[in-house]
Structure formats: C-alpha cells, structure tokens
Automatic annotation (TrEMBL):
MF term (GO), any: phosphorelay sensor kinase activity
PANTHER family, sorted: HISTIDINE KINASE 1 (PTHR43711:SF1), TWO-COMPONENT HISTIDINE KINASE (PTHR43711)
Source organism: Luteitalea pratensis
Kinase listed as a keyword: yes
Sequence ranges assigned to domain Histidine kinase in this UniProt record: 80-292
Name listed for the protein in its UniProt record: histidine kinase
C-alpha cells in the first residue's frame, strides 16, 4: 500500500491535481465501492473493515507523499526564482548607480539606460510567468483575446524580439499555405518566443529552424534544433515547471517557458508535442485549429 500511495501521489502531482482534488478522489472511490458492495447483497463487515483500512492506509501514504513533493517543489521554485531575479536586479542597481554619477558621456548613459530597461523587462516577464503558473495550477486556463490573425506575422514579430536578444543565434524561418485563423496574437508570440528561446538555449549553437504550415482546418508550427537530445527520462516531463535547465548556470529563465507554451496551446484547443533523438535533434510541434 505504501508503494501504491506514493505512485498515486506522483501521478496526481504530474497531472496538476490539488490536495483537495486528491482527497475528493479517495472519497469518491470509497463511496462507489461501498455502494456497489451493498447492492451486491453482501453483508460481511469484515470485508468492509479491510477495505476501509486499505483505503485509509493508501490515502495516508498518498497525502504524505503529496505534501512532501509539493513542499519540495515550492522550495525549489523559490530558490530558482530568487537566483534568477538576483541577476537583473543587480544590473538595475548597478545601472542606477552609474546614471546617478556625474557623467558627460551621453552614449555611455544611453547604453546603461538600455541595460536597465532590458533587466526590468526581464523581471516583468518572470512575474508574468508566475501569474500564468498560478492560474494553471489553480485549475484555471490562460486567458485569451482572440481576433483574426496570421501565424506568419506572429512568427515574424517574435523573431524580431528574439534576434534583438540573441543576435548570435542562427534562426531560419519558413512559411507556407494559408496561415490565417482566430487566435490571441500576443499569446502565440509568447509560444514562438518560448520555443525558439528554448531551442537556442539547448541547441549548442546549431541552426534553429522555425516552420509554419497549413494542414486542413489547422496550422502547424515546428521548432527544431540539432543540439544534444533531451534525456529519455525527462521527455514525459519536459512540459512541467523546472524540468530541464531551469537552474543551469547562465540560464535566463525560471524554467516555465515550455509549461506556459503548452498552457497557451491548450487554451486555443491545440496540441503540442516533442520528439528528440541524437540523429534527428529536437523538434517541438504545435497544432492549432484555425477557428475556435
């Protein structure tokens, strides 16, 4: 029962269950089994007592495991967030000190001001990611503002932002077919940015390919890099928070990019998956219906 309880808790955490929803699941299971037992005509209280003892033992182990894993996730998340916020906050503090000092060099002051703004925007993106994480973890979905849009234009806008922050990266983009639909363009730009940014981070300098194409009543978006493959044990968890590279040295994310990308795609009624191997590299594929 102990092993079953731990496996149950791990599975429910992976699928985003809350503490209350896990308890409700056990209550529903107990009520259903007891009702079926009563309807069967049996009246042996020994069987009922054994069943209740087994349910209580499994529930206790599951709740203990759930609490331990949740606390560990919280502590890890706070640690990663504190680490990643320290860098832009330090840049803002240093930049403010330089701007406050007497300086007749306007070019230097402009560079410092740009750096401060970039760091502030990065902190803003982190807090936005936290809000999205909170919405989805509480059982909600990413809010959307749908309007007629073109996926090619979304990709072009995202690429402008990406090239500004990763001038050294080689990103090739291709588009084909009718890529119009009803989507939240800001959110889709976030998906493209997160996927391409992840490819740059883990692509080891290999060229990145961004492909958008039409497929019947939907459009597909694919982002490919030729870097080291995702370890097989991490593939089922790659869309979970803090799974891959969140705490890597020099990382500029808090490990929420793929998690949020999946939430945005799901809110649009679409699907996202990943394939990764040594021979073929890593490819994230998104399918979006054109209409809601």
């Amino acid at each position: 029962m102990e092993a079953s309880g731990k496996l149950h808790a791990d599975d429910r955490i992976h699928h985003g269950f809350t503490f209350r929803s896990v308890l409700a699941e056990f209550r529903a299971l107990r009520a259903t089994v007891l009702r079926l037992y009563e309807e069967s005509g049996h009246s042996d209280l020994t069987d009922v007592r054994r069943f209740n003892e087994a349910i209580d033992e499994t529930m206790t182990e599951s709740m203990d495991r759930f609490a331990v894993q949740t606390d560990m996730f919280r502590d890890q998340f706070i640690g990663v967030l504190s680490h990643d916020l320290r860098t832009p906050l330090g840049a803002i503090t240093a930049g403010a000190a330089l701007l406050a000092a007497p300086d007749d060099n306007p070019e230097r002051r402009a560079r410092v001001a740009t750096s401060v703004m970039s760091s502030a925007q990065r902190m803003g993106r982190m807090t936005g990611d936290l809000l999205d994480l909170t919405r989805t973890r509480l059982g909600g979905s990413i809010p959307l503002k749908r309007r007629p849009a073109n996926l090619q234009q979304v990709c072009e806008e995202a690429m402008m932002e990406i090239r500004a922050g990763h001038s050294e990266a080689v990103v090739q983009s291709r588009a084909s077919g009718d890529l119009s639909g009803e989507w939240d363009t800001d959110r889709l730009t976030q998906v493209v940015s997160n996927l391409v940014g992840n490819a740059i981070q883990h692509g080891s300098g290999t060229p990145i390919t961004l492909t958008a194409s039409e497929q019947d009543d939907s459009v597909t978006l694919a982002v490919h890099n030729g870097g080291p493959p995702i370890p097989s044990e991490l593939l089922p968890l790659v869309f979970e928070p803090l799974t891959r590279g969140a705490a890597e040295a020099g990382s500029q994310s808090i490990g929420l990019g793929l998690f949020i990308a999946r939430a945005i795609v799901s809110a649009h009624g679409g699907q996202i998956d990943v394939r990764s191997s040594t021979n073929e590299g890593t490819a994230f594929n998104v399918t979006l219906p054109k209409a809601r």
